[in-house]
Amino acid sequence: MTRRHYFIQGGGRGLGLALVERLLARDERAQVIVAVRAPESAEPLRRLIEREGEERVQIVALDLTDESSIAAARRHVGELTERLDLLMTCAGLLHDDSGLWPEKRLADIDPANLARSFAVNATGPLLMIKHFHDLLTHGDRAVIASLSARVGSISDNGRGGWYAYRASKAAQNQFTRTAAIELRRHSKQLICVGLHPGTVDTGLSEPFQHNVPAKQLQSAATAAGHLLDVIAKLSPEDSGQIFDWAGEVIAP
Question: What cellular component terms from Gene Ontology apply here (predicted)?
């Protein structure tokens, strides 16, 4: 059996870490390369390496907001493998400790917060495709996926607000679609999609969970399983689309 190689950006915690753990559990021959901003503090990944071994888990440094860091990570990954079967970008910025928070009114808009949201939610995933796509255009089935959000759908926006997050995720979805069209010229078997995980019990959603019915709040492990199930069923004809955790297409 041929060893499969998976690359997970943002796999040090939350949903990204759950994806790493699920991939290892589902594929006993998998090599999972995990990119985090600060490898020295990625204790859960260190424990995974102790349990699974370095043949199964590798950590690389990558700051999604720094293109030189992404390029350096690409060089590092190229030393580990000549090909990838899955590239997954798990970045998402909705709020942080510096004051970034979903806007309710036009008066709340801050250009600096808009720029940071776009850097993480839209530009970062696109730069991942720019620097890593050549490892997936090998002619066999491969998947490039990035975590998106239903609120990035313009047609689905009936409530307003959340300007930075909505717009940056809409831009991410457009980048996914545009890259999929170009990459199809390089490999007919390469699938490029966005994935909406639903509401997951992580730090990103924690301040807003009181509005979510208990049955709709998923654990990270459950959400990771759903997303990997969706990825497993994708075909080349699905490339360029955005799917939710149940495998349903989200309208742009």
Answer: cytoplasm
**Rg (Cα) of the chain, in Å, rounded?**
17
In the chain, where are the structural domains located?
5-244
The pLDDT tens digits of the residues spanning 113-160 come to 999 999 999 999 999 999 999 999 999 999 999 999 999 999 999 999
Please answer whether residues 136 and 87 qualify as being in contact, where contact means their C-beta atoms are separated by less than 8 angstroms.
Answer: yes
CATH topology of domain 5-244: Rossmann fold (3.40.50)
In sign, the C-alpha dihedral spanning 198, 202, 204, 206 is positive
Strands in 242-244's sheet, in edge-to-edge order, are 57-61, 31-36, 5-9, 86-89, 142-147, 190-196, 242-244
